[in-house]
Design goal:
The chain is of the alpha+beta class. It has 2 domains: 2-151, 2-Layer Sandwich (Formiminotransferase-cyclodeaminase, Chain B, domain 1); 156-257, 2-Layer Sandwich (Alpha-Beta Plaits), CATH 3.30.70. Helices cover 31% and strands 26% of the residues. It is built from 8 helices and 10 strands. It has helices spanning 14-21, 48-60, 89-107, 120-126, 167-177, 207-215, 231-235, 253-263, and strands at 2-8, 28-34, 39-45, 76-83, 111-114, 147-151, 156-162, 182-189, 192-199, 220-226. A 6-stranded mixed beta sheet has the order 2-3-1-4-6-5, sandwiched between helices. Strands 8-9-7-10 form a 4-stranded antiparallel beta sheet. Strand 2 and strand 3 (39-45) form a beta hairpin. Helix 1 (14-21) packs across helix 2 and helix 2 (48-60) packs parallel to helix 3.
Length: 265
């Protein structure tokens, strides 16, 4: 089985997000929206649901009118395929490339791949500069921009809010905690600041470890899980910390898959 975590550039209009997510049906495991990031993270399984969601997002969203604190290159900004269970990284790469061929041919979307070849940050830095699209047109789609399509292992997207709303401090802390298993940005989010992280090796640096790294440098006001977390990553955290870290059994990939299994014949 493959997980696909589609990030779309809409987080303020929740009715519109629900409309775009609806074609995924039972293959939709989770939706997380943020109005300040102006972004929604849709966790799905399979290859059909991401294509249905992409089609509607390109139809309904317009990057030229988009404002949000999170970096983005398109209305469908990031589409990573993630192997679960018996699936392999090779399966994820093959699904990634099938999606790219489809998005280029059917929607005219330029697609930049990441995974074994390069990282997502490298795509963000180089798109239409040092990097040309791997699939599709050589210029951005007029309203939809382009899309970064990846093949990667499971990661945990995680935000830690600072008690003091100082962006300089958030950026300094992000730079200090950044490491191979932890990508971090300091962001102004409304009248607050956060260290926004991708825990790319969550079994080595999980939510508790990441939060503790930040708490050593500043007072923490709260934590936020974006999307879902693997059950073994949750189990590595002392249960008494789950509430403060915005973790719960119901937020695990495995629980949502079990729920889906009861819905799908």
């Amino acid at each position: 089985m493959l997980e696909c975590v589609v990030n779309i550039s809409e987080g303020a209009d929740l009715d519109l997000v629900a409309t775009i997510a609806a074609p995924a049906g039972a293959d939709l495991l989770d939706v997380h929206s943020d109005p300040h990031h102006h972004r929604s993270v849709l966790t799905m399984v399979g290859e059909d649901a991401p294509r249905a969601v992409t089609t509607l997002a390109v139809e309904r969203l317009d990057l030229t009118a988009h404002h949000g604190v999170h970096p983005r290159i398109g209305v469908v900004d990031v589409v990573p395929f993630v192997p679960l269970g018996d699936a392999s990284m090779g399966d994820a790469v093959a699904a990634r490339d099938r999606y790219c061929r489809w998005a280029a041919a059917e929607l005219g979307l330029p697609c930049f791949v990441y995974g074994p070849e390069r990282t997502l940050p490298e795509v963000r830095r180089g798109a239409f500069k040092s990097l040309r699209p791997d699939f599709g047109p050589d210029r951005p789609h007029r309203g939809a921009g382009s899309v970064a399509v990846g093949a990667r292992e499971v990661l945990v997207a995680y935000n830690v809010w600072l008690a003091e709303a100082d962006l300089t401090t958030a950026r300094r802390i992000a730079a200090e905690v950044r490491r191979p298993g932890l990508r971090a940005l300091g962001l102004q989010v409304g009248d607050r600041v956060q260290v926004s992280m991708n825990l790319v090796s969550p079994r080595s640096v999980g939510p508790a470890e990441a939060t503790d790294l930040i708490a050593q440098r500043a007072r923490v006001a709260g934590c936020e899980l974006v999307g879902l977390v693997p059950r073994d990553v949750l189990s590595a955290v002392a249960p008494q910390r789950w509430g403060a870290l915005d973790l719960a059994e119901d937020k695990t990939i495995e629980t949502r898959l079990e729920r889906r299994a009861n819905l799908v014949p």
